[in-house]
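If your schedule permits, I should be very grateful for your opinion on a structural question. The matter concerns a single protein, recorded as an amino acid sequence and a row of backbone structure tokens. Could you please explain, in whatever detail you think fit, how the structure tokens follow from the sequence? I set the record out below, with my sincere thanks for your time.

——
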Amino acid sequence: MRIESITLSGFRCFGPNPITVPISPNITAVVGPNAAGKTALLQALSKMFGVSRAQRTVQRSDFHLGVKDDPDDREAKDLFIDVLIGLPELADGTATPETIAPSFRHMQIERADESPVCRLRLEARWEDDGTVEGEVSQELFWIDTLEDDPSEDKRHPVSAVDRGLIQLYYTPASRDATAQIRATTGALAARLLRAIEWSSSAQEAVQEASESLATAFEGSQRLLRSAKPYRRAGQAFTMMSSIRNPGLAWSVADSKRSSTRLPSFLSKGRTVTNVSSTL
């Protein structure tokens, strides 16, 4: 599966006249001057296939506002984002349930001398409902025709499950993109780990390593529990940890001359009068 083209109308800097942008099967680079629509193109794909509700939700600011348009105009506005998804695996016989979901097979559109495609279309409308923000409605459809203006009977709502089968991870331009890249990388790594079909030998190796780590941590916890403070009222004493570190000794007394408190696991209510280290 791959995206063959995206058509935009009324979205951000793209005016009401539809503009189709073809996507190369190899590497696509979007080059252009400022305000040419490079970011808007990627944000349009994010509205279709974003990984969060916020990324998929169309806002009033997403509707095109022309140079001569009045920003205070309360007339209804419409936009659509139309994506054509190629299915070359069906043409060459390499398709599997993992590469092409059954729902995409059912909604495929046959083309003469070309591989079949699926078509998805996001339509949104802003209307004045008496509030400052107005009301935005949006819906995602399967389109089972290649006509530019599909009729109502050619549109079928896309379920949430089907929509989640394609996800776009968009990392916007940022002067400090470290956090954004880290979050994106973590999400991609998690999906990759869930998708891996582990061999039986790999599963056994992971299980053995997990058990070894669990045993090591249990031993450390037993040592920590045995490191109990010893107290003798009225006289100083030296407490050695049962972890058997001969280089560290704590001198503790019931004196109130120091305001430094010991951690609760060493001695509740005691104060430190001298800390000596023997090397």
The beta strands are 2-9, 19-22, 77-86, 109-111, 114-127, 135-143, 155-157, 237-239, 249-253, 271-276.
